[in-house]
Write a structure and sequence with these properties.
The complex is a heterodimer of chains A (about 325) and B (about 325).
Chain A: E1 5-15, H1 19-25, E2 30-41, E3 46-50, H2 57-64, E4 72-77, E5 80-81, H3 87-93, E6 97-100, H4 114-124, H5 132-142, H6 159-171, E7 177-181, H7 189-206, E8 209-214, H8 217-223, E9 226-231, E10 234-240, H9 241-246, H10 251-258, H11 299-303, E11 309-310, E12 316-317
Parallel strand pairs in A: 3-8, 3-9, 6-7, 7-8
Antiparallel strand pairs in A: 1-2, 1-4, 4-5, 9-10, 10-12, 11-12
Helix pairs in contact in A: 4-5, 6-7
Chain B: E1 6-17, E2 20-32, E3 37-41, H1 48-56, E4 63-72, E5 75-76, H2 82-88, E6 93-96, H3 100-103, H4 110-116, H5 125-138, H6 144-147, H7 157-169, E7 175-179, H8 187-204, E8 207-212, H9 215-221, E9 224-229, E10 232-238, H10 239-244, H11 249-257, E11 314-315
The chains are: A alpha/beta (about 325), B alpha/beta (about 325).
Chain lengths: ~325, ~325
């Protein structure tokens, strides 16, 4: 049986710079924003991809949704290729893969009422013959909004309400996979929980699979079954969420997990400090790309790039000297 | 004893709106002692931004300070004329905002901007340049001499925020207001920026008013904290009692909501149901009553006064026990 989603050695490349810079200064013509990522997802599963700005996580999400061209590798949804489709095939795909975009208010057209926004997916996919008012009421009910909100426009919604409308749009056509790009960005803490609870509830009720893109480690612990940590367009560690939180094996994962201040003045986390800045994709470091910032760097790391290899427990780690699981 | 860096008492601010006056801040009291780091936390709509604008005297034209006192190191701020106020801003008090790109001029080199900002000093340019490079070193910009003539876009987001902090601290202000300075930064950079602020505060000795909605960052960085809700400071005191034994039901709920605090993996995270009250037509009682799980009869009658308790400087709740 095919997995729901299979990504193999995906590369997304963007052109950069000028011909002059390329020929006379030896600058690269392109950067690999996603540089060889593989993953699979089963139905009903939630996978979170974590990484900092510029790690390529949003580009990965967009490539999986078929929104941007892919240069190498393959994305298969239920066994069928996703990348570089024609317009008609892409439209059919978007009934199966829906996306929740980062900016809750900005991703909604200001000229539409909530009713118009929720009816739009049906119109686009030629389903306007359905009772659209009933569909709008059903969707609002699913995301926990009162029916009266249908007449409002995006600027009259709070951040949490706008986010719920975004979720309702994504699930309108009963997709199998929902990709949520930073689903809680810009929301207050007290509202963030509501949105995550809603996503969890819909996942169970509608049997959705979810791919969550985030830099917020605190939230993914409560929502993701598996997680992958991305650095400079590649996965450095991937595995079960609870296992990675219990004992990260890549030094970057450890740094990321420990850089998460807790609201307790007496919490003194075992923190590892990263040196320097994130390297530019234009000048990828030789060897392990994390070696310049790694507190445990050794000679081999500067020369030889580590491959992403599976440990005995199935955890994938790209490090020559993975950290031992904590003794406790 | 010297005057506190910032002392705000009974401050109220209203916005004129079509529906009538909107009571954005009501009876706000905040004190930042010299050399202290004080946090200000609260969610959207709690009045954080209005308060900062009021301190800087940069309120919107439809806003009005209706009551209260504000003093910077003993100097009354409300009575100052615009010219005197302009002399204070950037010299005695400075501010860094969330987005470092908007604080820097994209068409001037950072060196030029760092020299220009010292226009008050009557010194040769070379000396100003030396001071700017020294400041860049202090905020860990690698190789500051050669990067002095680069433009803002040539720096990463984290470096730009550090440059903005360097510029704000160059005049060695009495009060440094940091308005969500780490919100746009990644987790590892956020931690580095907190460490940097702590170190700079020790060296320069300025007082910091640190505004954030990230409770973890405030707990780690600040000495004392003020929790705001719907235009009022509902709880204030040293970070330990406020974060470990919060007394106001809003603070309790807010802390319970932070997913970093929920150690057990859960599919159902706590939330605060309900909405902010209408600040034009305020409820007769406590502003949090409609969302409060512990609401009882007096809460609906009149707003609770701010009382001092054994551990807290101020608590606005009928359940609080005033210090005897």
């Amino acid at each position: 049986m095919n997995p729901l989603l299979a990504v193999e050695n995906l590369v997304v490349r963007f052109p950069v710079g000028s011909a002059i810079g390329h020929y006379f200064k030896g600058e690269p013509r392109s950067i690999d924003a996603v540089a060889g990522v593989s993953l699979t997802m089963e139905p009903g599963e939630t996978l979170a991809v974590v990484g900092e700005s510029g790690s390529g996580k949003t580009t990965l999400a967009r490539a999986i949704a078929g929104l941007i061209p892919v240069q190498e590798g393959a994305v298969r949804f239920e066994g069928r290729p996703v990348a570089n489709l024609g317009a008609a095939a892409r439209k059919a795909l978007h009934r199966q893969i829906a996306m929740i975009f980062q900016d809750p208010v900005g991703s909604l057209s200001p000229r539409f009422s909530v009713r118009g926004l929720l009816a739009e997916p049906f119109r686009i996919h030629g389903l306007a013959a359905r009772d659209l008012d009933a569909e709008v009421t059903r969707l609002l009910g699913l995301v926990g909004l009162p029916p009266a909100i249908a007449e409002r426009h995006p600027h009259q919604l709070s951040g949490g309400q706008a986010r719920r409308v975004g979720v309702a749009r994504a699930i309108a056509l009963s997709p199998k996979l929902v990709i949520a790009d930073e689903p809680t960005a810009g929301l207050d803490v007290s509202v963030q929980g509501e949105v995550l609870n809603l996503l969890n509830e819909l996942r169970e009720r509608l049997g959705l699979s979810m791919l969550i893109i985030t830099h917020n480690l605190s939230i993914l612990r409560h929502i993701a079954d598996r997680m992958a940590i991305m650095y400079l367009g590649r996965f450095v560690e991937a595995g079960e969420t609870t296992a990675i939180f219990a004992g990260p094996r890549h030094p970057y994962s450890l740094a990321l997990l420990s850089a998460n201040p807790e609201p307790d003045p007496d919490a003194r986390p075992r923190r590892i400090a990263l040196e320097g800045e994130v390297p530019s994709l234009l000048a990828r470091p030789a060897g392990c790309e994390f070696h310049g910032r790694c507190p445990f760097v050794q000679a081999r790391c500067r020369q030889e790039a580590p491959a992403l290899t599976a440990g005995p427990d199935g955890r994938l780690v790209a490090c020559h000297f993975p950290l031992e699981p904590a003794a406790n | 004893m010297s005057a506190p860096a910032l002392a705000i008492e009974h401050l109220s601010v209203e916005y004129a709106t079509a529906a009538g006056p909107l009571h954005a801040l009501r009876d706000v009291g905040i004190e930042v002692a010299a050399g202290e780091i004080v946090g200000l936390v609260g969610e959207s709509g709690c009045g954080k931004s209005t308060l900062i604008q009021a301190i800087l005297r940069l309120l919107a034209p439809n806003a009005k300070i209706t009551a209260g006192r504000m003093a910077l190191a003993g100097v009354d701020l409300i009575g100052l004329d615009p010219e005197a106020m302009r002399k204070l801003r950037g010299d005695r008090m400075s501010v860094v905002f969330q987005d470092p790109m908007t604080a820097l001029n994209p068409v001037l080199t950072i060196g030029r901007q760092m020299v220009d900002i010292q226009y008050r000093r009557r010194e040769p340019r070379a000396q100003k340049r030396r001071r700017a490079i020294e400041m860049l070193k202090r905020v860990h910009i690698p190789d500051p001499e050669s990067r002095f003539d680069q433009y803002p876009h040539e720096f990463s987001g984290g470096m730009r925020q550090r440059i903005a902090i360097a510029m704000a601290l160059m005049a060695e202000p009495v009060l440094f207001i940091a308005d969500e300075p780490t919100t746009a930064l990644d987790a590892t950079l956020e931690v580095a920026t907190i460490e940097l602020l702590k170190a700079l505060q020790r060296e320069i000795g300025c007082a910091i008013l640190f505004v954030s909605h990230h409770l973890g960052v405030v707990a780690e960085l600040c000495d004392r904290v003020n929790v705001m809700y719907a235009g009022e400071v509902v709880e204030s005191g040293p970070v330990r009692p406020v974060f470990q034994r919060p007394q106001h039901p809003y603070t309790q709920r807010l802390l319970a909501c932070d997913p970093a605090r929920v150690h057990e993996r859960t599919r159902h995270l706590p939330t605060i149901p309900g909405d902010l009250p209408d600040l034009v037509a305020l409820p007769p009682g406590c502003v949090f009553a409609d969302r409060c799980p512990k609401v009882f009869e007096p809460c609906r009658r009149a707003p609770p006064p701010a009382v001092k308790t054994a551990e807290l400087e101020a608590l606005r709740c009928y359940l609080g026990q005033p210090a005897s």
